[in-house]
Amino acid sequence: MRKLISTTLACILVAMTMSCGKGIGNGNSDKNLDTLSYIVGMNIANQIEKGIMPQFKADYDVIVETLESGLNGQKEFTVEGVTINKEALRELGMKYFGPELREKVEAAMADTTGMTEVFNDPAEKKIASTLLGADIAFSLENIPYEIVEEKLMQAINDIHNNKPVLTDEEANAFMENYFTVVIPAQNEKLSKEWLAEIEKESGVEKTESGLLYKIVDEGDIRTKAINDTDVVKVLYTGKTREGKVFDSNRWADMPQQRQEMIKAYQPDEAEKDNPIEFPLNGVIKGWTEGMKLVGKGGKIILWIPGDLAYGKRGAGQDIGPNEALCFDVELLDVRVAEQDSIGE
What we know:
A hairpin with a 5-residue loop joins strand 5 (about 205) and strand 6. By secondary structure, the protein is of the alpha+beta class. It contains ten helices and 13 strands. The chain folds into two domains: about 1-165, no CATH class; about 200-340, Chitinase A, domain 3. The protein has helices spanning about 1-10, 30-55, 60-70, 85-95, 100-110, 120-140, 150-160, 170-200, 255-265, 285-290, and strands at about 20-25, 75-80, 80-85, 145-150, 205, 210-215, 220-225, 230-240, 245-250, 275-280, 295, 300-305, 325-335. Helix 2 (about 30-55) crosses helix 7.
């Protein structure tokens, strides 16, 4: 089940790794978001029509109705006495789309007449179809940009009726331009505006490179990092300009997903901070510069412009291209690295 839907949403390609707003929306949206939402709907529709339906012979209307209800905020579906929600998806997916279904799927896809059914029981077919629609809807909640529901559903209907308003070539061209030109420029503008406001705050200073910082505790200035090859040991919390924590090795600040993984696979480390060591020439430029501003035991807040962070490439799902970032750092220790060990 999860593998199937991951394949469905993978068609959104690079969109899943960029950051430019979040969630499902019906409010004011610009033309770019309308088009983006339509293309997301095209991709989902194509996967339903060319992937899900040929494989599982599910009920198209049920899939789409469930998807639309999920986009409208419905979090739970009761079908033939079976409750479908996020918590139940994995277990139900294994039950209704487990390995034993493979032979039936292969038979259905091999039948050129289209008469072979995967789910012979109508109740079972309705449950399976609802599962598919719900999983797509729930997965869309994780897309890191706003989706205009009306446009997404329009695309699904247009594809179903063979009347899309965009060709695949037009959609691909838009996506490439949107995520390599429009979003980087937008992020750069918003980041500069954000940093300009931070710079006005009391205690904030600025280096020649554009790095903003505020020393909370200067620490022991007799023990400071001086060279790029020096190694620091730190606790930190990284946030986007919108205040979302994207990474932290402080237990209290760690994203819930990371906490859950630690509890599951490293229970002895649960509830503990996890200090990390690294040479200053192995991190982003803003860190390399910022860690030289305080001594051992010091605390500092860094606001790092995009060109001193991850630049045009961004990083992961939460950090888009040209994004400025904030790091709250405690410098636990500093030591001079052995020169021949750096870079190994």
